[in-house]
Amino acid sequence: MAASTGAANAAAADLQGPASAGSSMDSPPIQYSMILDHLIGDKRTAKDLSPGVMGGLGAPHKSDEQKMIERGMESCAFKAVLACVGGFVLGGAFGVFTAGIDTNVGFDPKDPMKTPSAREVLKDMGQRGMSYAKNFAIVGAMFSCTECIIESHRGKSDWKNAVYSGCVTGGAIGFRAGLKAGVLGCGGFAAFSAAIEYYLR
Questions:
Q1: Residue 184 near residue 112 (C-beta atoms within 8 A)
Q2: Is the confidence at residue 58, as pLDDT, over 80?
Q3: Which of 9, 21, 99, 189 is most buried, judged by most C-beta within 10 A?
Q4: Does residue 5 have a pLDDT over 90?
């Protein structure tokens, strides 16, 4: 009788063993999922990643002189002057380049059979470079200044600012030759500005 009772208890223990083992195997995935929820799930808390909290150095405090310099560099006048200088340099280089590949540079229209000297060629190249530099400087200053004014008025920085500025600049330059030239200049500069903005953005 005792032997049969011991065998029954052993069988019951064997039956309960796999069940308890199975329950212990099911608990780790539940705990792992809870950990994942706290790490990358919906229960994850947002943390402050500022340099001071992470042990780094915070942004230095700007002095009044630095703020004044930043305001000056962001002003429309500074942008216009910068565009004017850049246009002058670019226009001068472009004028000298076109004069260098022109076969008629330095020739006298009154005496086309005369071979120009090196001095005459350099003088003609300098005059053409200066002419291109002035034109490019005027266009650059007008475009940059009008774009800055339009952007400040609209309060947005998008492709429309360049298109409006191109239309104003082209129209102002073309109106010197008449109304038709002004309209064509407005449309041409606006389309060119739109193409450049589309390519850059």
A1: no
A2: no
A3: 189
A4: no
